């Protein structure tokens, strides 16, 4: 049984890593598309945001699919869609085709994630769920970090052949998924979705995927602009985020292990406090070196909320008799909502009142969330 769990964990980790690479791949390609197709910033933003739109639209349907047909079927379906969207992206000859391809990649991503996370969760011993989810998410972070590098490589070697190779990798992963052991079926319970959504601890788990997604949107917009104004070039800015991402990726399995041994609620509170401190520090810091340090620390603190949030969603789904596939589908939608909100909200606040208000708003949201974790409804249920 343990050998089966390990094989599935390795397969799921590789799959999520490839998916995360594709999430960030478009970043260095945007300037070329703007020049080639004479796009405005708004039009370029639509292409970049199409991935998140696909995740948001596909989150609930993919969860229902994973719940009805099983996690393995969802992974196979998501990977097949990845193959199709990679081919269409590589062959795209217009901005409309690029946007549609990115939208399909978003639907592929949420379908794969819903199935993959449910697959690991169903097979994993309950006492190791957090650690295994942390391991998967750690590699997702690493993939997201390497995504822009892969995009730059695609620009150098040629977008069409590069994405045809991606499609081939997706096809290999699809075959591996078909040959992998099928997880035991989950029997949906009538009214489980309603019970889960009435459970404050389950909703808190969802919020802990929305909240850091918002914060990373704020960081992704404001931190590079702040560093650039202080004389940092593109390479130096990329190095700062690379260090932050590598540390976050390395720490996630240990965060998951702590969630298993010490409970999710304690970790959630610790990292909410860390997020409040780092967000406030970014709001008031002036010296460049201090800003760099707190960008790295804020990235770690924000990212550390994902793993206990996922563990809480999984645990409360069990107690509500909600299938893991549907639970993670809903969770993907919560993440996508934060992804859609973060950068535009940060831009609006920073434009009106400066960066300080944006970072203090992040700290305020963490403070409110920390207070909510102390309420009887959440504390009593999450601590069970």
Brief summary of the model shown:
The chain is an all-alpha fold. Helix content is 87%, strand content 0%.
Task: Describe the protein in words.
- By secondary structure, the protein is mainly α.
- The protein folds into two domains: 1-186, Up-down Bundle (Growth Hormone, Chain: A), CATH 1.20.1250.20; 191-384, MFS general substrate transporter like domains (Growth Hormone, Chain: A, Up-down Bundle), CATH 1.20.1250.
- It has 16 helices and no strands.
- It has helices at 2-24, 30-37, 41-69, 71-91, 95-123, 129-157, 159-179, 192-197, 200-229, 234-262, 264-284, 288-303, 306-320, 324-353, 355-373, 376-382.
- The radius of gyration is 20 Å and the shape is globular.
- The two termini are 27 Å apart.
- The model has no long low-confidence stretch (mean pLDDT 82).
Q: How is the secondary structure organized here?
A:
Blueprint: H1 2-24, H2 30-37, H3 41-69, H4 71-91, H5 95-123, H6 129-157, H7 159-179, H8 192-197, H9 200-229, H10 234-262, H11 264-284, H12 288-303, H13 306-320, H14 324-353, H15 355-373, H16 376-382
């Amino acid at each position: 049984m343990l050998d089966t769990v390990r094989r599935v964990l390795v397969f799921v980790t590789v799959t999520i890593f490839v998916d995360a690479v594709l999430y960030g791949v478009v970043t260095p390609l945007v300037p070329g598309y703007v020049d080639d197709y004479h796009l405005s910033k708004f039009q370029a933003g639509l292409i970049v945001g199409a991935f998140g739109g696909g995740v948001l639209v596909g989150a609930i349907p993919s969860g229902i699919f994973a719940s009805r047909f099983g996690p393995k079927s969802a992974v196979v379906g998501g990977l097949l869609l990845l193959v199709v969207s990679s081919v269409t992206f590589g062959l795209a000859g217009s901005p409309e085709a690029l946007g549609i391809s990115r939208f399909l990649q978003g639907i592929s991503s949420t379908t794969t994630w819903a199935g993959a996370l449910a697959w690991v969760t169903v097979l994993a011993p309950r006492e190791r769920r957090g650690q295994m989810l942390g391991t998967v998410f750690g590699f997702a972070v690493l993939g997201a970090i390497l995504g822009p590098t892969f995009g730059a490589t695609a620009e150098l070697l040629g977008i069409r052949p590069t994405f045809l190779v991606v499609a081939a990798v997706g096809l290999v992963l699809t075959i591996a998924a078909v040959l992998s052991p099928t997880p035991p079926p989950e029997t949906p319970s009538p009214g489980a979705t309603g019970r889960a959504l009435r459970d404050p601890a389950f909703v808190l788990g969802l919020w802990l995927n929305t909240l850091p997604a918002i914060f990373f949107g704020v960081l992704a917009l404001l931190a590079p602009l702040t560093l650039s104004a202080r004389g940092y070039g593109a390479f130096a800015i990329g190095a700062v985020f690379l260090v932050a991402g590598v540390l976050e990726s390395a720490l996630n399995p240990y965060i998951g292990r702590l969630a298993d041994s010490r409970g999710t609620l304690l970790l959630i509170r610790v990292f909410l406090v860390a997020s409040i401190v780092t967000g406030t520090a970014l709001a008031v810091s002036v010296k460049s070196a201090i800003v760099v340090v707190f960008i790295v620390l804020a990235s770690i603190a924000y990212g550390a909320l994902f793993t206990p949030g996922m563990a809480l969603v999984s645990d409360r789904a069990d107690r509500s008799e909600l299938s893991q596939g549907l639970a993670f589908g809903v969770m993907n939608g919560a993440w996508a909502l934060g992804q859609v909100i973060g950068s535009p909200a940060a831009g609006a606040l920073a434009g009106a009142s400066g960066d300080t208000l944006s970072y203090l708003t992040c700290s305020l949201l963490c403070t409110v969330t920390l207070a909510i974790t102390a309420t009887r409804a959440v504390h009593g249920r999450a601590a069970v």
